[in-house]
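lol ok so funny story. i was supposed to be doing the assay writeup but got distracted and ended up predicting the structure for this chain instead. priorities right. anyway since i did it might as well share w the group, maybe its usefull for someone
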Amino acid sequence: MYWTDRIRQVKIVLVVAAVVIAVASLVVSHFLVRDLAEEEHRRMEVWTAAMRSFNMADENTDLELVLQVMNGNHTIPLIVVDEKGLPVLERNISAQGYSEADSISYIKVKANELHNAGRYIRMDLGNGEYNDVCYDESVMLKRLTTYPYVQLGVVMIFVVIAIFALLTSKKSEQNKVWVGLSKETAHQLGTPISSLMAWTEMLKEMYPDDELIPEMDKDVKRLQLIAERFSKIGSLPEPVPASLSEVMQHVVDYMNRRTSNKVQISMHCPEEDIIVKLNAQLYEWVIENLCKNAVDAMEGAGSITLVVFREGEKVITEVTDTGKGIAKKNIKNVFRPGFTTKKRGWGLGLSLAKRIVEEYHHGKIFVKNSELGKGTTFRIELQS
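and the output, tada:
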């Protein structure tokens, strides 16, 4: 829970930081772009005044200064059009790739777009005549306009990578805890199980006809099987071909001995045996966990149905109960470590089941459907 809370807090901090950075960047860039746009507009007003002076020049006009102003514009694209909208002059307009006729048409269309957008300054030539100086944003201004969005994308990518790294770190830490807990549990169980096995053998010799001793022996072997299961967590046992029907039958036999007559367990497998590569002990553990959870959900009375079938290249196992069901808001959390709806429990069974199915058998396990008051179906998909 500590890790979960800490990761949640860090994710919130990262998201808030990203939002603050994005908003601050957009605000600063907005004011910067606005100021630059106003500056470019003023430059166009000066350029238009210089152009007007050039067109109306007389012997007293300082043409050197006028030409210096006009030729000093190397960044702002502009097109001068007459009263009919025909281009008279253009500067900093790229028409590369167009033929001469097409370039004239392109410049005319571009001037019309700028004029319709209100990006022009009227130049009075006297006697009711005028030209319009249509101008566009400079390349630098366009880059500054798009820069905040590029920056926002970079920040978001950084946040996603950071969150992914944190989740990976969390998962790695959880895996170490799982492995350590499992290995230690198997180790601690080893000594008392060995003693129980020795005592059982002695009791068999002392009371060969006692009917209870074979049952005790079964329980001891069951404990030995559980210890072996725990010892395999953390390693990658090589799956071997096994009969899925036999695995399921072992689970049914075990559950029938451990549950009351009020719980009916049925199994439906195809007549042709299905052979799948798996670790039988661990897979039995998964099915047992699902069945035990089903018994708890039904509060000791109801039915559990185990179904095995092929679906294309997949082998499907479904475990259906008639229990109280799972609320929709909890379905996505059922496999999360520590999540449980029971008053007593660690919330580790389904998490271990998911790890065994996905990491050891490269399959999938999920809640196929669940309805409150009617029951739940868990589905496992393995490659055949």
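The CA atoms of residues 14 and 20 lie 10 Å apart. The chain has a mean pLDDT of 82.
back to the writeup now i swear
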